[in-house]
Amino acid sequence: MPLSRAPLGAVLRAALLAGVAAGLVAALFHFLATEPVLDQAIALEEQARALAGVHEEPLVTRGAQKIGLFVGFLGYGLSLGMLFAVVYHAAQRWLPGETLSAKGGLLALASWWAVAAVPFARYPANPPGVGDPETISYRQGLYFGVLLLSVAGTAVAVALVRRRGWWGLAFLGAFSVVVLGLAPANPDAVDVPSDLLFTFRALSLGGLTLFWVVLGGTFAWLVRPAARGTLALARA
Questions:
Q1: Out of 8, 22, 62, 103, which could bridge 214 as a Cys pair, Cβ 3.0 to 4.6 Å?
Q2: In this predicted model, what pLDDT tens digit does every residue of 62-76 receive, in sequence order?
Q3: Is this structure's pTM higher than 0.85?
């Protein structure tokens, strides 16, 4: 017998707790692994400014930025947890998977692909000091354009997976390749050492992936009581 819809309250509670856990884990990861790389990038930026005769006091100290890292990721986790709950509750009957936990894991995987992997593949993160301030609006527009297209394409692919199986994954792969191929390149030059750039981008993608792994895994674990409750109601 198929499961009934999990109640919104149970889904929301599980998603928010999962979002908090994911945000804190990602923040700790970046605090331990990425912050030292950021310190190197900032030191290089300050050296370049000194050679150019430019001296500016930072608006926010590095200590405050590191505290803000945890605050920011906590807010990020709560926001995406809330959005995850709304999408899951609305779409749970149409998501592939035999259990509520499996559906949650699949939605987390699809979310990682749509909002993290595809946009990052075209516009990867850059360390401080990279990018012309005059092009920031243009670059943000490009990024969010790819993000919206990726979300829309992934939603269609998930629906196709349920009805057509592997054809949905084939569509997702082809659609993502087209989006990545047609999206304009980043107009700004990247003039930092290649090893620093590679390390920073690898850690940035690693943090994004870790966030969604923790969110999806925690949600799948926390939503299990709701699965037992809906099954009991279905049998009553």
A1: 22
A2: 778 888 999 999 999
A3: yes
